[in-house]
Amino acid sequence: MRKRFLTSLALAITFFALHAKAQDQVQTGIREGVTLIRLAAANFKPMGGNAAAFKATFDAVLANDLQNAGIFDMVSKSLQPSGTPGAPSEMNVSQWSAEPANAAFVAFGAIGLQGGRVVVNGWLFDTHNIQYPQVIGKQYTDVPNENAVRQIAHKFADEIIVRLGGGIAGIAETKIYYVAKHGANKEIWVMDYDGANQHALTSLGSVSISPRVSPDNSRVAFSSLGREGFQIRMFSLLLNRMVAFPTISGTNLSPAWSSQGQLAFSSSRTGDPEIWVSDMNGAGMRRVTSFRGPDVSPTWNPKTGSQIAWISGRTGLPQLYIMDADGAAVQRMTDGGYATSPSWSPNGQFLTFAWDRKYGPGAPGGQDIYIMEVASKRWIQLTHDTGRCDFPSWSPDGRHIVYAVQGRGRSEIWTMLADGTQRHKLADNGDMPNWSWK
Amino acid sequence: MMSRKLRHLNLLMCGTIFAIGLSGCHKKTAIAPPPMTDTSAMEGPLPTATLSADPLAIDLGQSVVLNWRTTNATNVTIDGIGPVAANGTQNVTPSTSTNFHLIATNAAGKTAEANVRVTVRVPTAPMAPTGTSADMGSDADFHANVQDVFFDYDSYDLTGNAPTTIAHAAAYLASHPAIRIVIGGYCDERGSAEYNLALGENRANAAKNGLVQAGVSPNRIRVISYGKEKQFCTEQTEACYQQNRRAQFNLDR
Questions:
Q1: Interface TM-score (ipTM) > 0.90
Q2: Which residue of B has its CA nearest to A298?
Q3: Do B225 and A254 touch (CB under 8 A)?
Q4: What is the pTM assigned to this prediction?
Q5: Distance between alpha carbon A24 and the CA centroid of its chain, in Å?
Q6: How far apart are CA A415 and CA A194, in angstroms?
Q7: Tens of pLDDT along A7-65?
Q8: What is the CATH number of domain B132-251?
């Protein structure tokens, strides 16, 4: 058994390593052989007004965003040249390309208050192009508060990431929707991708779970316990209030958006939980599975919008399956254990899910996050002995996975690169995270 | 089980308080204004009387202590007990809720009265199958006859003594046609929340199907899955997990 495990792991590593080279920076599990870009983020120069507090926030958020991106080898601030360039005229790129900074690119600029607004000038310079070093030159202005400054830093970071990261948009402006538990109630919350700005969306005073944001960021679908059991509910992010969604008999769970705005969810109106598909208003509902046993937790292939992965207990313990969106071409993906909570990668190639390979009474198994290549069914394990992990969700750049770690009656939200590195905590009280599409 | 008992107790206490409140009101309205005469001087002092009971509410079979004090009385009687001393205590064991009524009479025939109500909680016996009752009956009665069914690990099959439990429940429901029920499906804390909600649905539906096959109309049954969202027992032991893996029946009021 162990030998087979090692063999398949070796196969998977070989596969992912080969694949990663062909894939232009998309993290697929193992980063061996991929050179990270050496990038320096200089502290920004204060200009005009008393913007010291904003400058500290901006510098920290920008450096953190670039570090989180997973495509840069960041130059430590202690290795950077002294002096704070605030404009192109003050920048000497050869200082930054030299040892010890050894930066290939440098981000710098100035932040200040002008006319009651915060103004940020930001540049990205290529240190090896002495004659025309400028890659990006941007000016941002917004109301002078902490959150606006954070958003400016996120925007500038995303400019740099999309330019240097193979054209894949950064995730610094994305949000993570999740469940926060307060007493016996669970409400839907949202936070920035870096864990900042945590706040509640709903206050239904019930048990609300499984938030999934629509691809256009206009709605959050979730499931909430009412008098008739769990029902699909819909929150409008544009109106900032609940909007109507039909109440259906039975238990209705785990909504999932397709890239075209359709919904798939589990409904037991027939007496058995099956996967159903409808439009975003709940119209045109049709059933796509029909096997005895629980069918739940669908996720669409975001690339094609024509396949659904989900969890089915038709053969006993829950396993991961995929099928066409009309219910044809069903394939079982996992070979045993207890598999739950799939999320399909934005490029359509991978599934991430939670898996306990040795599940059962008295079994030593732990539940960890795995990714599997859909075409080959090869998998690798991303978390090890960090607690009971569940609900992985891909970031829109396909480089990150956010997930929940549970234990001792509480649940935390953590994030990591899709190869299992750079793990860090985002929220102390959070469960069922769902990463926005953009 | 604990919470259900507590709820039951709460209902009873509410009932008791309500009953006490009612009797208090009644007493107030029954008291006549004091007679505005000066005959009392000639006929000796008027009698006074107080009567109390401890406790005010008992379960059937328990006893209660009556305690009375009178002044200026020559003849004191309590309804149902008969003549008693001017001051005294007595243990009584009423079989139903009772108004104890004390009358104190002085030599001139003037009387004073005192009342106390003792509430007796009588467990309702199973009703004879009448077939026409519009009453759902008591929760205690229901839960004594329609008991939770428990499931094996990651299973929603009715095994072990579950079929017997379901058959007994179906018989009770057949004899109480007014009862509508809601079946809650529950899971232990292991496994994933979404999958457990689907599994809980299958468990509640397995119990529902068992009842339907035994002749109970599906229109009388509502099903709600709680998955592992409402844990009944929170220890991480197999005994506790087993208690959580269940379909629980409640009156759908």
A1: no
A2: B194
A3: no
A4: 0.77
A5: 19
A6: 9
A7: 444 444 444 444 444 443 444 544 545 689 999 999 999 998 888 989 999 999 999 99
A8: 3.30.1330.60
